[in-house]
Amino acid sequence: MSQITQARVVTALTGDYQDYQTNVLGTLDYLVEKYGDDYDFINIPFPNGENRYLILNAEYTEEVLQTKQKSFVKGAAFNFFKPLLGEGLLTSEGEKHKRDRRIIQPSFHMRSLSGYADTMVLNALNLTKQWEEGDLQQTDVSKDMMKLTLNIITETMFGTNIDQGKIEEVDEAFTTFSKVISSAYRGITDMALFKQQVANSIQKLQSAVAPIITERRGLETQEMDDLLAALFRAKDEESGARMTDEEIYEHVMTFFLAGHETTSNALSWTWYLLSQNPHVEEKFHQEIDTVLGNRTPVLEDFGKLTYTKAIIQESMRVFPPAYQTARQAFEDVEIGGYNFKEGDTFLASQYVVHRSKRYFEEPLMFDPERFENGTLKGIPKFSYFPFGGGSRVCIGNHFAMLEAVLVLATLGQQYKLQTINEVKPEPMITLKPKTLNMKLIKRI
Ligand code: HEM
């Protein structure tokens, strides 16, 4: 196990990273291969000469994301989202972030989420019905998972008694928004057109979502148990303040954006990895058959499906849905004896650290038992950080784990999925499989 005392920093040669924009993962793999054994930070300068440091080890990832977090902001990388998310949790900084996080956090404690388990399972069951009624032999699983997780976040946000047409309107507006952002991510060729498309889809989202918030403001929310009601009820214990409609709108948008694509990718990669590792798949089937038999999963099963949970954890190690996150130093900061400058940018990369030989034996092997048999005890905390860390750690981490485990178990009870096409990772804002066509094989 590595014992780091002095940070080792190298500046990459231009030839090392010239394909960075078009081939992110290939470039990361190449840089790690070339410099990984001897260095802890690789400086991949921006075209304007500013420094951007890729962090190669868990200890310094912890310093940036947690121990020295006060010296960092999220910085320019997140400005991309501001037109839609305003000052929601993902994009706000400083006191505003601290206050909102304090108010919202209780709504994401495990006990507050228990009411959402049924929604998660019912939506998964609906998908199996669609597969069955359509008599489908095969399907694009990454599209199905995206739709499923979007339905789940919409229903947990607004409840099920909201008009189904409205739910579809919101889902459609979000799908369009994600498509526009994703294609822009590949390289913006026409900035004016991009801005226009973003503005159009934000406008659609606004006209679908804002009226729901205004209508609900007038209603008694005590008896409602969806996320929107929780936002209305949330109160700052220190000041007694509640949130305005505009603030609620920004949080709702944030939960939509942060809360479905990541979980969808985690599920898609898991189906893929299961199909490639029959011994793991078999053990998965044994667990769900033993714990559930033929009955539908319920909240209480979450704690019993320990191998299923380990499968999701291991899947997010190999293919982390959030594969890198940026921070910018807003003051000079010392890390491992090295003096970094105000304005320096850092990339904390789940993709790089989760696949590092420093922490994991045979890192590319899919082996969920790592998370069961204690072999990960003793490795540094930030060698595995799919949900980030520090004060900006994912607020939806319990939500996501509950959802992923219940969905995997519900679908896995009825279907076994077999990969048909060659699967390639597509690193956009999140890491998704490019296309994931799978054969649907009925189990029961
Ligand atoms: C497998 C699923 C998920 C993964 C891998 C994931 C990953 C992450 C990561 C890495 C961050 C930190 C980003 C940073 O530090 O720059 C984050 C933040 C966040 N996530 Fe998640 N997330 C998932 C699911 C969810 C869900 C289901 C929700 C909401 C329902 C959610 C809401 C958020 C929010 C609001 C933040 C910002 C938190 C803050 O800065 O205070 N996420 N997520």
Question: Could you characterize what this model shows?
Answer:
The protein has a single domain, classed as Orthogonal Bundle (Cytochrome p450). It has 16 helices and 13 strands. It is an alpha+beta fold and 444 residues long. It is 49% helix and 11% strand. The mean pLDDT is 91. The protein has helices at residues 14-17, 24-35, 58-67, 82-85, 94-104, 110-113, 117-133, 141-158, 164-185, 191-217, 227-233, 245-276, 278-292, 306-318, 350-354, 397-414; strands at 9-11, 41-43, 52-55, 72-73, 138-140, 325-329, 333-335, 338-340, 345-348, 415-419, 425-427, 431-433, 437-442. A 6-stranded mixed β-sheet has the order 1-2-3-9-6-4. It has a 3-stranded antiparallel β-sheet with strand order 5-13-10. A two-stranded antiparallel sheet has the order 7-8. It binds protoporphyrin IX containing FE.
Q: Which fold name corresponds to the CATH topology?
A: Cytochrome p450
**How many distinct beta strands?**
13
Radius of gyration: 22 Å
Q: Outline, from the CA principal axes?
A: globular
Determine the CATH superfamily: Cytochrome P450
The biggest beta sheet reads: 6 strands, mixed
Give average pLDDT, whole number.
91
Low-confidence segments, ≥5 residues, pLDDT <50?
none
Helix content: 40-55%
Brief rundown of the structure:
The protein is of the alpha+beta class and 444 residues long.
Tag the structure with descriptive keywords:
single chain; 444 residues; alpha+beta; Cytochrome p450; 6-stranded mixed beta sheet; 3-stranded antiparallel beta sheet; 13 strands; globular; binds protoporphyrin IX containing FE
